Input
Amino acid sequence: MTGPQALADAFTGAFRRDPDGVWHAPGRVNLIGEHTDYNDGLVLPFALGLGVSVAAARRDDGVVEVRSRQAAAAVTAPVDGGPVVSEGWPPDRAWAAYPVGVARVLREHGTGGASLLIDSDLPQGAGLSSSAALECATALALCDLHGVQIDRPELARLAQRAENEQVGVPCGLMDQAASLLCTAGHALMLDCRSGLSAQMPFAPADSGMTLLVVDTRAAHALAGGEYARRRAECEEAASLLGVAALRDVKDLGGALGTLRDPVLRRRVQHVVTENHRVEATIGLLRAGAVPELGAMLSASHLSLRDQFEVSWPEADTAVGAALGAGARGGRMVGGGFGGSVIILTPTDRSDGVRDAVAAAYAERGWEPPEFHEAVPSDGARRVTP
Ligand code: ADP
Ligand code: MG
Output
């Protein structure tokens, strides 16, 4: 990704006019709390240094024109319109459903058209939430360009609505909330039932620790169907247990005794213990006990692998190799069946951990994984006046 000035210059070249500004929104990693969001539970994401930038200029003709340096097709669409997902856009234009969808949702709140040029250094589809970064950068730009003020928690809900209704992806609120609400040096505790959030101090470098994000280079082929199945299983278990959501299970032993189906028992065990792990992690963050987070991450991984059954071979291999090389802990992140892994390691062992993961991949003949250091960063913002 180029810097803001280079993006502004590229905008001028593409649209034959200067942009009114450049905005940036980060991707995120969820430290812990996986598959808890749709069970009304807790999540703990933080914003990455990587993200999506957008150079934009206001238009008053009711049109959004979007281009991306990561996509070949430029798309022009009216701001007025029904859900993009119902318009049957061809695959090469599908990416534009995110920014156009945001423009259509925000239209109801007083924004209008714009020309947008997008650039990103976030891998797409790696579980680092490039989709929410794209939505949130677009949303901030549109609000600023049209002088519309929407507070950030509400803007997160509107961006989520765009992904749900316009793109047709049934995601929760976490990604958009993380991209808009996170602050540097913190993770964001988000209660997915109330929507309330709080900043928790998280600065691994202050404790001599490094958090690595490993893009495992495994595509989530099964992801959609399996994700829907897990959601349905959790709903079924909640209804059998007579609770509104699995978050409300207070007596795990009792619940496991009530459920006959071993699959549902495993799902409930994961969700309930994962919520406890988020709470324990919050306690560790408050105490500044960063190295001790490793045990929580590894426990989460085992639970996702064995109880929720959503891990994949590359993730298990990466976590195993990292632990063998002295990492304090690690886990798969995201919905499962592909995407990324996070690894918490003492900084002085970070190179050795990377080498060990790369070697384990090479041994199996897999394409090398990609490593990023995750530094808890600021949320979405305007980067040029
Ligand atoms: P994730 O959010 O984990 O990266 P998603 O499947 O939710 O994965 O979103 C990825 C999609 O978002 C891409 O397939 C593409 O349509 C869109 N997208 C993300 N970043 C860009 C970009 N820089 N340019 C164009 N489209 C993008
Ligand atoms: Mg996404």
